[in-house]
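Convert to structure. Protein one:
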Amino acid sequence: MTSKVQDLKEFLAGTGPVALVEVAGTRGSTPREKGAYMLVSPIATYGTIGGGQLEYMTIDKARQMSGVLPSRKGMQPATVHRIDVQEVCATLDVPLGPEIGQCCGGRVEVLIRLVDGAMAADLIATAQAEEEHLPHLYIFGGGHVGKALAASVSLLPLHVVVVETRAEELEGITEAVETRLTAMPEEMVRQAPAGSAFAVLTHDHALDFLIAAEALKRSDTAYVGMIGSKTKKATFRNWFLKTASGSEAEFERLVSPIGGDAVKDKRPPVIAALAASEMMTALVQHQVKVGAEVA
């Protein structure tokens, strides 16, 4: 599994100075929220503050501050007001209107600072803390749909784990997610942190039933989904209620088929795209609900 924290460390350790470009304030409609940031080196960038001309202008300014790009006439429209400029810090106040080729209509205050050792350590520590608290998504099954789903969710702010009983099916899984080989996948359900999402799509219906039953018996999950048809869902319901000691209320939390049935397309990448949206929505809604309960 490749870690976003490791990617950040490698970027900060790259050749040349690095500037931190951070959204310090917003008014009206803007592409990113306060606190969003990106890093700019002489040859690359890491992260985004929303793209478009706003991002191009701040990248240019960051490289000017780093001493790797001379100031170029015309790169900073009159509508961009430099509030403060020092040797290692600058603040830009940018209206997002037609003057710079953007139509968001809001205004963004951008803080640009050259990154020193202390700032780099703070960025890494913050990234590590965020990574430790990412919602977990467990994908049971590394077949065609499992691989497609893992690829679809690998760029999302999630900790993704693909669980398999067959070693060969873990080959070809994107390196951006964690993989687990186990003879007892249902044990992974028991070990998962509260608020996790579970996507059940193994090669064996009996195994699907066992894993889904374990997940449904937990009351703290954000999402439990099982791939399959209406017939498979009905068969599972009968088994779950009569043999697995499940309740109707628990069964009602099952999402099956995953990804919904509005789009009649069974190709793995299509199922994966629809399911990824469904699961991310459920995870965000669960976090909001838990946050409201805590407050």
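Protein two, convert as well:
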Amino acid sequence: MSDGLYTIGELARRAGLPVRTIRFWSDSGVLPPTGRSAGGYRLYDEAALTRLGLVRMLRELGIGLEAVQEILARQVTVAEVARVHLRAVDAEIRALRARRAVLRLISERGTTDEETVMLHRLAQLSAAERRQIVTEFVSGTFAGIELDDDAAAIADWMRELPDSPSPAQLDAWVELAGLIADEDFRRRLRRIALAGPGPLPEYELRARVLAEAGPALAGGIDPGSAAGKEVLDRVAGPAVDRAALLEWMETVADARVERYWELLAALNGHGESAPAVPAFRWVIAALRARGIG
């Protein structure tokens, strides 16, 4: 140090940076020298040391040299640049979450090459693109079917996927996207929509099935036994057309459909509900055991 000025080497030692980094920044114009020594060497004062600290911080935050120059020239503020880079970092985080979700699904499922490419593509979609896929799915699956108020509300709900999904929601989205791309699954949903309401209100029937057939299934009660008949009578009641009940239950009791609703609940932040399909299948077996259908 001479007369309050530093050489590049002295500045590098003070800042804890390589000489080549400071020389590069100096050549780029973000750290111009304060002056020159008699031998032509660049010299820097205390203000340059302070400026160097700011440049270092901005570069460590990932801000490019051009933006650093604009900040130092007071053309933009640090806050303005930070907001731009925050959006970029958020986008990178979303991309990493998408990549993580895809890698997890691939590692767990052992997908084919074609499925791997599809999962990767789906995970990279923007929020608008995700909504478009769901919109096309809803309009294509339920075309020509007049939806009641509840079904219409559910269709709208399906379109409202989160803009910035959590890792768990992204996992759910990737799985849901694969599911709704399945033409057989779409046909099943359409059949359910065309079938209309069953002989009992759906929520009431689900509650009965879970309350009665669920414990019977867990307890190993044979659907065709006398005890199974008692359970069936409590589920169906005396006034229900059991042939119609069997036909409706066989249409709606699909594990993929239930998984579809579970994924939608996860995407929309709703709590999980108890799986009903195994209990529904127990009731179907009990109906068949009595010659119905």
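The mean pLDDT is 81. The first helix runs from residue 8 to 15.
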